[in-house]
Amino acid sequence: MLQSSSLWNHSTNFTNDFDERVDVAGAVRPHWSLISSELEQLGPSILKLRSQSVDQFIHDNGVTFQPAEHAPGSAQPHANRPWRLSVIPFLFQQAEWQRLREGLAERTMLLEAVLGDLLGPQRLIRERIIPGELLWSDPTYDRAYHELSPNVQKLHVSATDLARDADGQWKVIGDRTRAPSGLGYLLENRIVTSRVTPTLIRRTNTQRLASFFESLNDHLRQLAPSKKDNPRIALLTPPSGSYREFEDTYLARYLGLLLVQGSDLAVRDGELHMKTLGGLKPIQVLWRHISDRRCDPLELDPASIEGATGLLRCIRRRTVSVVNTVGSVLAQTPALMAYLGKANEFFFGKPLSLASAETYWCGAAEDLAAVLQNLEEFAFREAYIVTGKRPIVVSELDRAAKEEFLGKLNRNPERYIAQRRLRFSRTPLWTGDSIESQKVVLRSFQLNTPKGIEVLPGGLARAGQDELELARSLTSGGTTLDCWVTSDKSVDQHKTLLKDTKSTITIRRGGADLPSRVAEHLFWLGRYAERAESAARLLRTTLNRVSGEDNWETLPEVRRLIYALASAGQIEPSYAVEPFSSNLPAIDQVLPAAVLDRVQSRSLCRSMDAILHNAASVRDRLSIDAYRIIQRAARDLNRPIDFDDTIDFDESRRGDRDANLEVGNAAVKSSTPPAKPSADAGTAQGLTINEALDRSGRLIVDLLALAGLTSESVVRTHVWQFIELGRRIERAESICDLVTTMLCPPTENGKQICEAALEVSDCLMTYRSRYINLVQLAPVIDLLVTDETNPRSLQFQFDRIASLMDKLPTVEGPAGLDAILRLVSGLQFRVTTADPIKLSELAKDGRLENLQRLLEEIAAELPELFNQINARYLIHTESTQQLTGTER
């Protein structure tokens, strides 16, 4: 067994801090003994491997968060970072957890009572338990919240931020009652650690989490005002790019909820509906994860696009249950913590067993005076709003900053609270080479049900060196730890979210419930995936010619391929014009850089960005494998340049595991180092022709894997239909463009050009199996245009589009349907009746005039087909309704 000194970092002595693992005498606490022994037996090398396994799981699952400093509107928005999870858990002994659980349950009951009073009779204000000025000055308060839902439970899911002081007592440093974040990350942490350390988690008899989520699912169903057996429950998430994006998608997938945005919702006749391809579908329960003031632009913030117009009207009529109620943000007001102890005595006649950290609202004159006498002992925060800003400690400020802050405090004292600083306890954390103790905070989660308060066993722990950083919001960073509540007795290991119910479920094959917004993202996901594959094939074919042993400038197909690249938006359009192209850099210098180009709007990287954006926006509709393929493809395409032409495939991907993958409205951003000097003429901006070939080839393989998974694993509902519809329309456009640029212009030697066109279309082997090496225009045109059996032909695309349109729901009159069908039928007819022999006839100037005319007519009508589909299915228009006043 390795000596503990080789594992535990004892370089610093923190005698004044409470240590979670050892007592003041240095003896290991009983509930830590098993894990401490296990860690010492494993030693640094195994711990390092396990930590790498944790990182790999997090990486593979695409777990990211958006730091507070990179929130929307900041200088660097959407800069998502990988989630960090420690291989060593945070431990609770069962008896200690039971005491803390009781305190958390008591506090949850208090917050429910306080919120109900502030939004109702306001006895706390009349009895001067809470200063009325605190509520009237609160910018988060709105009169519309008052009596919005009387005699109805307000809080359902809440969270509490805790820290253990030097005396070993847990203190509350913040409450979260609006839409607490962290449940999804907590669940992912448990899944990852249970995979890395399955034996240890069983040996410690760690309490499972599934029962809490089962209760949550059951509670959401019971809140439905109707259809309680199988209600429609939606999770309302902010628009793409929010810090909640990953977690909301994760929770919706795990709990089986509909993930909706404000644009998916509509209020009709006082009821909340989801806009779908099949019409409006009523929603019975809405779990909102947007701010209170953005829930209803009619009565609250008129500029909001996150909520639904008329939602408050639905709440008053009790046609929908909202979790948590609109106005619940008031219960998490930081200044309120200064008065919760008195409020508990007022409501329940006893002091709080789980007290808050000593807190003063500076808006009260006597409290401000007490704080000013002991400035160094307090950290200052905003009084009304929970933010990700670092608390202000006067002793950390220089003279000018201190004077500036004290001036603000004296001018507007009501805007600040002062909270006595705690000495956060310490817990073991693996740092990469050894274990050291770091500060730790805990976020617990409570579920308020008619049967009582259920507290999730453990919570989400975060560790770091700076307690002020840990006191910030959950997404401010730091390393998280899976929290284990251990016991001497075995625990139930068979909890499940699959309910045992006697109610009968009607078997159906759905699909019409797909929101129009989701259908749009799926449609564009299919289009961009096909666009990226077509571009990669075109680049690869051209790079193969340029890098070959022949002089590429003498190859007739290269000029046509350059035209095709310019037409497809992969290189500067001037390359397609002879007088201009001669003044541009040589194509062998440009092509490698084109693989990573972000200037051209249709470039390969820009298409991958769009794939990531659309995939992230519908992540709850995609399988984990599909999303991993997309992430892998983007990472591999944009990985830092390797100057060795021979790159190990697996090593290149493993080495990029910490790349910054932006999921949401942005995507992977290329990190290209300066070009290494090289004699290779193919070097452009640091990327060689060989590596450009390698990247484009790998991308094609990944995109084919995605297409295969979509084909074989996605149920033939509207999810699949819109992905496929986007793919087929894009492929039809690509075929028209490729054949027009490659085959239609006059040429003296068409064999190489035809073979290049077949290669780009992935039809070369099919052609050779039919015609061996005899290359003629008519069979080439037949294979690419009129062959209904070839998935890469124009005819096949229109046949598939027609089949897909037949399966889409009818939401308009027959006239609207006829308009689309007429377009599709007309396109089918043109190609079906086309004769490959006549299409291959040369005009006097050597052009394939008939073929060019056909392709130009089709290319002109394809945008109109998209516009018709877009207007009918992807832009959901509804009849207007008048909403005036408020209904009481």
Task: Provide a count of the helices.
Answer: 29
The total count of strands amounts to: 20
Report the span from N to C terminus: 72 Å
Amount of helix: 40-55%
What does the main sheet amount to?
8 strands, mixed
Q: What percentage of amino acids are in beta strands?
A: 5-15%
Q: How confident overall, as mean pLDDT? A: 85
Query: Helix/strand/pairing class, anyone?
Result: alpha+beta
What do these coordinates show?
With 888 residues, this protein is an alpha+beta fold. It has 29 helices and 20 strands. The strands form five sheets. Strands 3, 4, 5, 16, 17, 18, 19 and 20 form an eight-stranded mixed beta sheet that branches. The protein has a four-stranded parallel beta sheet with strand order 7-6-11-12, covered by helices on one side. The longest helix has 31 residues, at 30-60. The radius of gyration is 32 Å and the shape is elongated. Mean pLDDT is 85; it is low at 68-79, 496-501, 643-684, 811-816 and 876-888.
